[in-house]
Amino acid sequence: MPRDHTKPPRVRTLGVNTTISGFGLENVGKVYSDSTTPPNDQSKIESSTITKKRSAGFLFDEDGLFNIDDEGRTERQQCAVAASNIIRNFSFMPENETIMVQHRHCLETIFQCLEDQNAEDDELITNMLEALVNLAPVLDLRILSSSKPSYIKMTEKSAVHAIMGMLSSSIKAWHCAAAELIGRLIINPDNESFLVPVISQIYRRLVDLLSVPAFDAQAAAVSALYNVSEVNMDCRLKLASERWAVDRLLKIVKAPHPVSEVCRKAAVILESLVSEPQNRMHLLVHENNFAEILTSEGKYSDTFARILYELTARPSNKVTSGQAIWGNIN
């Protein structure tokens, strides 16, 4: 806050009848007795009465109790981080989910913190992001345009933009959490209309994460793709046409990923892609890899057998024809 910032004067009545709260006027002298407040300001404080509104200017003096110098900002930041940690802890309890996702101000604050990822404290951002991931399965983004009172200008589009910013982050904990967040949000059909317009950007980034050496990043990307690819046909068409998507999903299965559930989801994604006739030409070039996994990987042989069947046995709507090792498609 700037030094010349002014606030309307107000009477502090909280704890006025107590001796330990620090808010009563009888304690002002004690609070400022050891400060280096200039004499003229000190006299103003001492001459204040309960019925007289005090000037807010002294709150922003260099040595005032509520000054916003570097030390004051640090203290405020520490309080903000502590508050974000409390909100994060609340989000882990299922009993709190309904209350939190219906509290518009809470959600607006969380998304605003994500928007300000380049300016806010790392721990604060992480806490808010984890809270949002926990709430995502029951979160309806439409609350940001509801009739409930709004304290921060935040729309559904702004919220999605903030999430995309986290997904694009180079910090592993953030882009992994953002990928998981998208996968959970899109389960709710009411959130689809806000995420589908940026689905191409989401796919591009998730496919990039599939090539990251970190196993947890790969797992987060596969989990998100698993849910997003089930939204509608258009999503499956866009994923199949995304460069390296099929190739990297195959590598997850062939490597294999240390978590078997991740491999299973990758195989199921490929099976959902081949169910669309328009995708067959994109997948046909990988037919040898499908056959190799079919003959060498027992866990997923049934899935890849179905993929090969879909590729070769069913007629295609394409006018062009292609030669496949398991037969012709016309």
TrEMBL record:
One of its GO terms (molecular function) is nucleosome binding. The keyword Nucleus applies. The keyword Nucleus applies. Residues 79-110 form the SWI/SNF-like complex subunit BAF250 C-terminal domain. One of its GO terms (biological process) is chromatin remodeling. GO terms for cellular component: brahma complex; nucleoplasm; SWI/SNF complex. It is found in: Nucleus. Keywords: Nucleus. InterPro entries: ARM-like, ARM-type_fold, BAF250/Osa, BAF250_C. PANTHER family: BRG-1 ASSOCIATED FACTOR 250 BAF250 (PTHR12656), TRITHORAX GROUP PROTEIN OSA (PTHR12656:SF5). This is SWI/SNF-like complex subunit BAF250 C-terminal domain-containing protein. It comes from Aegilops tauschii subsp. strangulata (Goatgrass).
